[in-house]
């Protein structure tokens, strides 16, 4: 009976679906030239050519009967296949390319003037168009842009050290002062004279207050807010501001900044929208690009350093983007707290990771509340 019931049960079942063949999925990825197939990483070898490739190899697809699949390079080599020179499945050429670009960056850093593209390409041993493509892929910027940022850093450091403008401009590799003054603020976010003076002749008004995350200091010039810091004692916060503007006259102005302070404290207590204040941002052209991108991150959301680099057209400049975030002196208004690690972890924050976590949690709650209110109004 049991056997009969078993036979009847099997006979009544619909035809079972076969298990998917992993090689079929791999073959589909080869035909699609998919560099990151859903079936997972693998390599394929071509028996008629004796080579093995990545699935995204740009070479002409082989015939299916001549194709073999392997999990990693050593397995393909053990079977007698050699690495394809076009797609570099062992990553050897990628390492060579990266080292060549590192050397080119070192040459730019060490040169008094900007090396020409031909010089850089010749030193690296590549054709100019190929070198330019590799440099942009690896660094996220062109050699010229990289060199301009190097010059800006040199100029900024020399002026901060008190060098005369003419000497700093020459030492940074600019042919003349006119190159720096052509577009006011383009290089440093301010004129070289203002950078050298460290705020001399300027008045920065400051105001202190208590906030949910500790002592808060706001500093502002005539142009707008230039400093927002919190979580430390008053003397440390003022020290941060004075390092930024060592020659400026700092004056307490609690009444003049009362409304601004209320906005910042209110944001820390219960953020419901992005903090919008008139700002006086001073930095290199690259820093300002990063800071402007930070202000475009939607309230209550986060992004990664890689995605932020991608958004400014410099996908490989992740470390430079992270440095620019760290050099932001206007916390909250330029929301560097909305940038997280690639795995979602809350990476370093000037005012401490616990405060970063608290701010993000409150922003998410504020965004959820705002969306809920909107839904209720629409349903009324």
Structural notes for this entry:
Helix content is 47%, strand content 11%. By secondary structure, the chain is of the alpha/beta class. The protein folds into 4 domains: 24-83, DNA Methylphosphotriester Repair Domain; 91-191, Arc Repressor Mutant, subunit A, CATH 1.10.10; 203-269, Methylated DNA-protein cysteine methyltransferase domain (Double Stranded RNA Binding Domain, 2-Layer Sandwich), CATH 3.30.160.70; 285-365, Winged helix-like DNA-binding domain superfamily/Winged helix DNA-binding domain (Arc Repressor Mutant, subunit A, Orthogonal Bundle). It is elongated, with a radius of gyration of 29 Å. Mean pLDDT is 80; it is low at 1-17, 175-192 and 374-380.
For the structure shown, list the relevant keywords:
380 residues; four-stranded mixed sheet; alpha/beta; DNA Methylphosphotriester Repair Domain; disordered C terminus; Double Stranded RNA Binding Domain; elongated; disordered N terminus; Arc Repressor Mutant, subunit A; 16 helices
């Amino acid at each position: 009976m049991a056997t009969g019931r078993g036979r009847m049960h099997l006979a009544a079942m619909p035809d079972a679906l076969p298990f998917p063949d992993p090689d079929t999925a791999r073959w589909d990825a080869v035909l699609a030239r998919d560099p990151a197939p859903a079936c997972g990483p693998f390599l394929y070898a071509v028996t008629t050519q004796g080579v093995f490739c990545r699935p995204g190899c740009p070479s002409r697809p082989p015939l299916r009967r001549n194709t073999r699949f392997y999990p990693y390079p050593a397995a393909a080599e053990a079977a007698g296949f050699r690495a394809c020179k076009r797609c570099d499945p062992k990553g050897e050429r990628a390492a060579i390319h990266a080292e060549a670009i590192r050397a080119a960056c070192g040459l730019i850093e060490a040169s008094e003037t900007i090396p020409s593209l031909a010089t850089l390409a010749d030193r690296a041993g590549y054709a100019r168009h190929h070198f330019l493509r590799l440099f942009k892929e690896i660094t996220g910027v062109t050699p010229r842009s990289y060199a301009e940022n190097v010059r800006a850093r040199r100029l900024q450091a020399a002026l901060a050290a008190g060098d005369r403008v003419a000497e700093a401009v020459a030492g940074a590799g600019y042919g003349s002062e006119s190159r720096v003054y052509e577009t006011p603020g383009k290089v440093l976010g301010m004129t070289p004279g203002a950078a050298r003076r460290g705020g001399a002749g300027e008045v920065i008004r400051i105001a202190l207050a208590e906030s949910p995350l500790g002592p808060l200091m706001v500093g502002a010039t005539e142009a707008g807010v230039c400093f927002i810091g919190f979580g430390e004692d008053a003397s440390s916060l003022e020290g941060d501001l004075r390092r930024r503007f060592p020659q400026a006259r700092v004056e307490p102005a609690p009444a003049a900044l009362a409304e601004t302070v209320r906005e910042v404290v209110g944001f820390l207590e219960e953020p419901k929208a992005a903090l919008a204040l008139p700002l006086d941002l001073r930095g290199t052209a690259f820093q300002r690009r990063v800071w402007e991108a930070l202000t475009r991150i939607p309230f209550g959301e986060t992004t990664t350093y890689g995605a932020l680099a991608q958004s400014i057209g410099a996908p490989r400049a992740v470390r430079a983007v992270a440095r620019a975030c760290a050099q932001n002196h206007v916390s909250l208004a330029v929301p560097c707290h909305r940038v997280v690690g690639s795995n979602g972890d809350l990476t370093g924050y000037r005012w401490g990771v616990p405060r970063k976590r608290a701010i993000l949690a409150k922003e998410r709650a504020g965004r959820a509340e705002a969306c809920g209110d909107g839904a209720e109004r629409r349903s009324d």
